[in-house]
């Protein structure tokens, strides 16, 4: 797979405001992040701190109110082939089989049939889906559906993968299996990954770097490098030290969230 193309993300002074009714929400305020090629970065924080807003802006689905986002120096003006997105809800076509779902993006790109077949074959193997190739999404477990969603993005060979709580709806065991698969794929392909989660453990297990965000306005509260060797052991002392430190930071923001909700209930 070609991973040499564009994949350095630069987020420079990004602000995003939403107006809903009488209220103005500052979802992002002055976000500055430089994400080098091949880095696995997790955006961590409680609900409402702007993680999805930032990811959607990098994807090009929505535009910042001000500031710029570039990929290898080129401003993001909309969705683009170098940025693949995996959502929490597996965005599969229910009327297509597993292999058709994986092939779809390649057919749109008019890739030659033999190359599509070879790519689909490789991905079915990589994600342990070969024996489920003829099934429809409704006949798959949540974990398998998410595997198909990941395979679909990998098929397009985007050098950047944007993942919005992709394992949030899965049970603990399936989640850990998919985390391990994602790590293996990332090590093989060296894609740049920007991954949203509100799970502290998931962030420490996966990331090279964790960016903790504040609740309203969404700013960078802490930006740290995780230098524990992989595969990481959630039972180790170093893992738990970091978990405690991050837990404290996230808790502070969660409390601000609760206070804000109570205040709004009184105002309403
Ligand atoms: N389209 C919108 N219109 C108005 N406000 C919005 C809109 N999208 C997001 N917001 C607000 O912006 C803030 C950030 O939302 P966002 O969804 O990015 O947070 P998040 O950290 O991803 O939370 P979650 O984990 O719940 O998805 C929230 O206060 C949210 O209510």
UniProtKB/TrEMBL annotation:
A GO molecular-function annotation: ATP hydrolysis activity
Entry keyword set: ATP-binding, Cell membrane, Membrane, Nucleotide-binding, Transport
GO biological process: quaternary ammonium group transport
PROSITE patterns the UniProt entry points to: ABC_TRANSPORTER_1, ABC_TRANSPORTER_2
Ranges where the ABC transporter domain occurs: 9-240
Cross-referenced SUPFAM superfamilies: P-loop containing nucleoside triphosphate hydrolases
Annotated InterPro entries: AAA+_ATPase, ABC_transporter-like_ATP-bd, ABC_transporter-like_CS, ABC_transporter_ATP-bind, P-loop_NTPase
This protein's record includes keyword ATP-binding: yes
SMART domains: AAA
Domain of life: Bacteria
Family from the record: Belongs to the ABC transporter superfamily.
UniProt protein name: ABC transporter ATP-binding protein
Species this protein is from: Massilia litorea
